[in-house]
Specification:
The chain is of the alpha/beta class. The chain contains 15 helices and seven strands. Helices cover 49% and strands 14% of the residues. Strands 1, 2, 3, 4, 5, 6 and 7 form a seven-stranded mixed sheet that branches. Helix 13 packs parallel to helix 15. The protein is globular. The model has no long low-confidence stretch (mean pLDDT 91).
Length: 290
């Protein structure tokens, strides 16, 4: 789908469009998705070649654009699955890039300081975004501030590939578009695994949660995932850990290898969103395990 931003060409591509309910989760493209969202390396790998095909098509359609930026939605300190996809795609695409073309990574971040969740509702609004209403999604995106305009010198006059895993209501894309319009890239290509029909996603934004949770529903399944050697804990993965009750949280922390507990604590401290009284017991226990 081709569109125009303010003086900028833009297009959206996806591996699969979802235009009706119920979703058939038996289809192959859904099988690895929940694990990919958690940061499992083999699950991330599953989507790289198909997404690379979309990216190559986008770049070849704009052959006059020789300098490209690859990025993903902003994050604080803990990357999302979209960032893992972005980083791996950079390596794959650069292996076959024409000599006179360039593709450079730009990691985007939120600029406003994050604060710890005050209560369960506050936690779910921020960390269970996939289950939010469209009104709550807009409210949360309005609260966050990206740093796109701070990279004007890097983005101006370039082509931009924005890698993401799913588009449901389009709220995040619209907010990022407002920032891109200020820095004037020549083209922005939005690449997704799944794109939900706009009307369907607006009426049923909870479809994102259903896709995220189509497997890995038990504590035992989640435990196996977070302990895997090739898992790089994502924001969703860590949020799910902290969403467990204290007993399950302790069990899950106890089975982690020491180096993974070290990484976990460092990420949680840097993220800041787990500060405060609501998670105090869990943070205290995590620190005790050193």
């Amino acid at each position: 789908m081709v569109a125009r931003m303010a003086g900028i060409s833009a297009a959206t591509q996806c591996l699969k469009e979802i235009d009706s309910l119920p979703v058939d989760f038996d289809q192959a493209l859904f099988a690895h998705y929940p694990a990919m969202k958690m940061g499992v390396g083999s699950a991330v790998d599953h989507y790289i070649d198909p997404l690379a095909g979309l990216a190559k098509n986008a770049m070849s359609a704009h052959a006059d654009c020789k300098h490209w930026i690859i990025t993903a939605p902003p994050y604080q300190a803990i990357p999302a699955a979209a960032n893992l996809l972005c980083w791996q795609l950079l390596e794959v695409l650069n292996q076959s890039l024409p000599d006179d073309d360039s593709l450079t990574l730009l990691d985007l971040h939120y600029t406003n300081a994050q604060t710890g969740a005050r209560d369960e509702r506050d936690f779910r609004l921020r960390y269970d975004y996939s289950n939010n209403s469209i009104e709550d999604r807009i409210k949360e995106r309005n609260r966050l501030q990206d740093d796109i305009v701070q990279h004007a010198a890097v983005l101006a006059g370039k082509g931009v590939l924005v890698i993401n895993d799913i588009k449901v209501t389009g709220t995040q894309q619209r907010h990022m578009t407002q920032s891109f319009e200020q820095v004037k890239p020549v083209h922005v290509e939005w690449l997704y695994i799944f794109q939900v029909d706009t009307a369907l996603g607006t009426k049923h934004p909870e479809i994102e949660h259903q896709i995220n949770s189509s497997s890995l529903q038990t504590v035992a399944e989640y435990q196996q995932l977070i302990c895997a050697d090739d898992t790089r804990h994502t924001a969703r993965c860590i949020s799910r850990l902290f969403n467990h009750d204290l007993d399950d949280f302790k069990t899950l922390v106890d089975v982690l290898e020491p180096h993974k507990r070290t990484q976990l604590l460092a990420l949680v401290k840097a993220e800041q969103r787990f500060d405060g009284d609501y998670f105090a017991q869990k943070i205290a226990y995590l620190k005790q395990r050193f």
